[in-house]
């Protein structure tokens, strides 16, 4: 999931910033070269009020915000899984390692916050 979200955000920002659009966003133009164009379109089109009625900066901020929420929710889930597996050292170790890929210090949340 982290890879899809990071990929979608990165692709969006790369292609969106290379295009000059002052009002109204061409979702297909932004997402066509993403590693998963369908996933990209789903995120961009989920913006309340629609992507076509938003400016490029608004869409970019929306995508970053959605990514931040998804990564934060993933971190919360991993913490719950660690607590549930207090007696299972293998599972706890696995989830702790997974948390490193999402946390603020070294993982996805830091990349989102730096965006």
UniProtKB/TrEMBL annotation:
The answer to whether the entry has keyword Disulfide bond is yes
Alphabetized GO MF terms: pectinesterase inhibitor activity
Q: What is the name attached to this protein's record?
A: Pectinesterase inhibitor 1-like
Q: Family per UniProt?
A: Belongs to the PMEI family.
Spell out where the chain crosses the membrane. Answer: none
Pectinesterase inhibitor domain spans which residues?
A: 27-111
Q: What species was this sequence derived from?
A: Abrus precatorius (Indian licorice)
Q: Which residues form the signal peptide?
A: 1-24
